[in-house]
Amino acid sequence: MDRLLTNIAKHISLTEEETVLFTSLVTSKNLAKKTLLLAAGQDCRYLSYVDSGAVRSYFVDKDGKESTIMFAIADWWITDMYCYLNKKPAMMHIETIEQSTVFQISRDNFDHLLETVPKFERFFRILMQNAYTREQLRVMENLSLTAEERYHSFLIKYPQIVKQVTQKQIASYLGITPEFLSTLRKVKG
After folding, report:
1. What's the DSSP call for residue 147?
2. Tens-place pLDDT, residues 95-126
3. Is residue 170 part of a domain?
4. CA 175, 179, 165, 83 torsion: positive or negative?
5. Is residue 188 situated within a structural domain?
6. Quick one: 67 exposed, middle or buried, by C-beta within 10 A (0-12, 13-18, 19+)?
7. Residue 11: inside a domain, yes or no?
8. How far is CA 133 from each of CA 121, 130, 150, 154, rounded to the nearest angstrom?
9. CATH code, domain carrying 29
10. Cys-Cys crosslink for 97: which of 24, 54, 84, 89, Cβ 3.0 to 4.6 Å?
């Protein structure tokens, strides 16, 4: 819980009473590798904070091809945000990549938190802005960079993630085949 409270303290200051309320609204889960936090089609009821381990969200197309949407490692937040906020069935899966501990807040508790402690509106606005910016830059990279340049950019931006995920998952995130990624890695030497 300390890491989570430190994450929040980066953007807002909480009183002891606000901290007690917040911690009462989140639940903790210790999860084995390859545990589904969310499956496409399920009600997306939780926003998750990764305290330890790593998770990924991914979409499966009609042909069964997986496309990784994002990774989340320790000190990152993850959910199917559109579906969480709009009370829609999930469009993606969220699965642990390794043994992980997550803290989750349900939609109802999230709404209660925002109503009771308005400064959390600021905290989550900042998270959303950062996520939107990151995704916008990713789209721009996908449109303007070669696969090799995207891979190099990924290695620079996310060195910790590279240590925790498979090459197949990285390829899925970059929108290339694992075989092509293997060729890129051999060329990079």
Report:
1. H
2. 999 999 999 999 999 999 999 999 999 999 99
3. no
4. positive
5. no
6. middle
7. yes
8. 18, 5, 17, 16
9. 2.60.120.10
10. 54
